Amino acid sequence: MAHLFEAPHSIAIEGPIRAGKSTLAALLAEKIGGRCIAEPQQNPFLGRFYRGEKSAAFSAQMWFLMARYEQMCAAAEQDAKSGKRAPVVTDYLFEKDKLFACLNLCDDELALYNRQYEYFRDQLPTPDLVIYLQASPQVLRTRLQHKGIADERMISGDYLEQVVQAYEHFFFHYTASDLLVVNTDEIDFVENNQDLQSLLRRLTEPVHGTQYFLPLGSGDGGKHRKLLRWDRTQTPTLRSLAHGFGPGILQAAQRLRRAW
User: Fold this and answer.
1) pTM summary value
2) Distances (CA, A) of 45 to 18, 32, 91
3) Which domain holds residue 45?
């Protein structure tokens, strides 16, 4: 990353489960000589939530909210003690916590959650660059099965599709920082080094506003790439988010619109 144009100090990598966030965050942090902050693990309520226990949703969400906030504060404190701001790459964007809260919590729970979320969010900085890893529900389902983690295998297809649609809705409207959208359906930078190197090369160039990236097929040796256009006619609307899922997902989409 020696040629990175005015390298951003903080980079957040986002996307639905098994999009490759953690792998890319670790590789990118190593490449730029920065610190990697990984998603908090061992949420004691998550397994129960994946098994469909509705009572576990609020506890799981609050655990993540507090753990992510504590991680961000610890990183800032470490910088303050060292007297310098080291580059940092996180495998999540703090705002993703609210995205899942809008999907998973009932109105009363969400109102209580929002009070704590707003307090935390006001104290945290916004990253310089966000990398959004797009992936279709079908691709994610295949990766979940391949990974073989028991709790993750219990994630329903309907819920996975809701998560993907919520991410699309959120990032279509995201303007808080520069954003690089990477469609991972046709590439696999986790298993394919050529795809990884192509993406890392892209990150040696500046990202301004919202830009889109997908390498061409392996037949061209990965030397070229094409930019994807986010077709607004294909972007999920509040009504299309609800299609096939009943009023629950429409309510979640309406919450997302009000939240951002």
Assistant:
1) 0.80
2) 20, 35, 21
3) 10-230
